Amino acid sequence: MYPPPPYAPARPPNPPVNGLAITSLVVGIVCCIPPLGLIFGLIALSQIKRSGHRGKGMAIAGSILSGISTVLVLAGLLTGGISDALDSFKDGVNEAARSRSTLDLRKGDCFNVPGTELEQETASVKVVDCAKPHDGEVTGSFRLEQSGAWPGEAAVEPIAEKRCTELNDAYVSDPSAVPDNASMYYFMPSKQSWRLGDHTVTCSYAAVDGKLTGSLRAGSGSTPSAQ
User: Fold this and answer.
1) CA–CA dist 204, 187 (Å, integer)
2) Beta bridge partners of residue 184, listed in sequence order
3) Distances in Å between the alpha carbon of 85 and those of 79, 91, 94, 146?
């Protein structure tokens, strides 16, 4: 029988700590690049399982922290993206709602024409609040009685001048209250639109220069002015 050894056998050295586990934990705490911490943690856990190295707790903690950070970042981006998309959509809807074909203008509508020249041919305008600066205000419309081929501007203009003068005068209660820069203006069919069934003339008061503010309509309660 042999006597026991004079000392306990040496304990085997501790296995090293996995480097990726440490990296995962650091990245998870710092939150600089969230997905990397998660990736490093998963790789570290795989290596630790094979090698027996230490650091499993750090790898798990780093993965969890990075996973939470990743979810928060994605949620922030998604929420911001949806919010921006909704804002853009609303702006587009509002813009589309304000843009109107000259054929769809109604008595009392105030409008701005695209560009800077009222004389330029246009198929659509932007309807605005009459209390805000605008180029013109619709006083009414009428349908030309001619049928068949396009009668030509020379035939349409005298009719438009006469009828629009009548509609403009009936629209305001006091002609003297019409601003000096406001004059009769009308949208009439073109040769192309006539072929498509457009026989309507839309009459208005429009600013010769500058802008109009307030409604000219009788009983509107606003005081029109020039700008």
Assistant:
1) 8
2) 205
3) 10, 10, 14, 49
Spell out the residues 6+ positions from residue 210 whose beta carbon is closer than 8 angstroms to its own: 181, 226, 227
Q: What is the pLDDT of residues 189-224, one digit of tens each?
A: 988 889 988 999 999 999 988 999 999 987 665 655
What is the spatial distance between Cα 222 and Cα 110, in angstroms, rounded to a whole number?
13
- Rounded CA separation 21/56 (Å): 7
Could you tell me how many residues make up the chain?
A: 227
Alpha-carbon distances, residue 112 vs 58, 100, 125, 137, 207 (angstroms): 66, 10, 6, 9, 10
0.85 surpassed by pTM: no
CA angle at 181 for the pair 170 and 137, rounded to the nearest 5°:
45
Owner of token pair 């853009």: 88
CA 72 from chain center: how many Å? Answer: 26
- Amino acid making up residue 98: R
Distances in whole angstroms, Cα of residue 130 to Cα of each of 61, 104, 108, 150, 179: 63, 17, 9, 34, 14
